[in-house]
Amino acid sequence: MIAMVEAGRDLLRAAIRRRDPLSADRLLTMSEDLARSPPGFAPALAEQILSGYEAAPETERRAFLSGLAVRLAPDPVRLERAVAGFGRRPDPAALAELHAASEPRRQQLFRNLNLARDGTTRLVRLRTDLGRWRREIDDADTLDADLAHLLSSWFNAGFLRLERIDWSSPASLLRKIIAYEAVHEIGDWDELRRRLEPQDRRCYAFFHSGMPDEPLIFVEVALTTGTPRSIESLLSPVRRVCPPGQAQTAVFYSISNCQDGLRGIPFGSSLIKQVVELLRAELPSLRTFVTLSPMPGLRAWVESRADDPVLGAAARAVLDVDPPPADQLRRLAATYLLTAKSGAGQVLDPVGRFHLGNGACVHDIHPGADPSAKAQRQSFGAMVNYLYDLGALERNRARLDRDGAVAGARRVRAFARRGAL
After folding, report:
1. Bridge pairing between strands 160-164 and 201-208
2. Cα separation of 403 and 355, whole Å?
3. What is the pLDDT of residues 200-255, one digit of tens each?
4. Running DSSP on this structure, what letter comes out for residue 223?
């Protein structure tokens, strides 16, 4: 039976290749049919739609995504009837009908598309397209919200598998680690080996059964005797290897999201917490869990403060001198991390938003910690330690959510106070 299904799929893909690619309008009509299809009929039609979409020219794919927001919105007639019915008799049955009527038909379409071969992977790629063409697609935010809603359920941390990646892992996976590394570029295989093989190095990744060969997010960890002040101390080819039994600190020095189509899906915090628990069980000597993190928004924020009546002098001093004065840079960075917020009231720095949202604390700031050109452009080469104090995570996160208060060590708060003078 399985062989017959696979043969049918092969014939379908061959048929699509032989004729002209399906138009956006044809794909949308088929999608409307799929959204109404009983589950038993869904896989073949789902395969035809996804194969047709993937074979279509870019203009047709963009038109298809734009059309989904309009043609597979909630049925207005059904929704109006459900609202009226609930108004007349607000019982559980009426509420269930109102909920069903208000759900966009796109969500049922995506559920059925997921039944195609490698459906989950292909839907993640479709969301990658959506993000790339967001400005050219009508009502892209609504369509993205529907996909994100479903993917958040499918990629719940309870469905993910944590695996350690080491030098003995398959070469195909190791190539992906090199390709997906987003914080500190891995130049070649020798450099990758230095990050995976030594006994004081660890790398862990989340995987999902729907994408078994693709890491979703991975974290690189260094085992050390103390809190690092520079990335060179962790990545130098001539560094001293720390025997794991002597390590007191686990340093999360690189966290990389691998799938653009899963941006905003919140499984990163679960990765950190699971790795912490795993390391604590393996190495009871570990006492401290910190990051060594970039501050990608620092330079832009400092530039925006050049004419500020309070911070302007410090900002100009940092902008006008290379390398910038360490004391001024440390003070500005502390003020930035503790106080800078977006228009929506969130922590402005994207890396800080992630770690502080997990309940971490701004522990220390290190000017000149990363000499790379990228770090110079983003943060004048400064880096920050976020401390994961397991006993304070929930309290820190609650204060951030409730009051917008960022947890910071006493010395970091002292830096910020001096910077505001």
Report:
1. antiparallel
2. 17
3. 999 999 999 999 999 999 999 999 999 999 999 999 999 999 999 999 999 999 99
4. E
Q: What's the CA gap between 85 and 70, in Å, rounded?
A: 25
Domains of the chain: 2-154 (1.20.140.90), 157-291 (3.40.630.180), 293-419 (3.40.630.150)
Pick from 341, 120, 363, 336: which is nearest to 252 by CA?
A: 363
Structure tokens at 165: 């990646």
> Is-cis flag, bond preceding 323, omega within 30?
yes
Question: How many CB atoms are closer than 10 A to CB 276?
Answer: 18
91, containing H or E segment: none
Distance CA 192, CA 189 (A): 5
73 Cβ partners below 8 Å, 6+ apart? 104, 105, 106
Which residues make Cβ contacts (< 8 Å) with residue 298, sequence separation at least 6? 332, 333, 336, 349, 378, 379, 380, 382
The Cα–Cα gap between 27 and 12 comes to 15
- Paired strand residues for 222: 201, 251
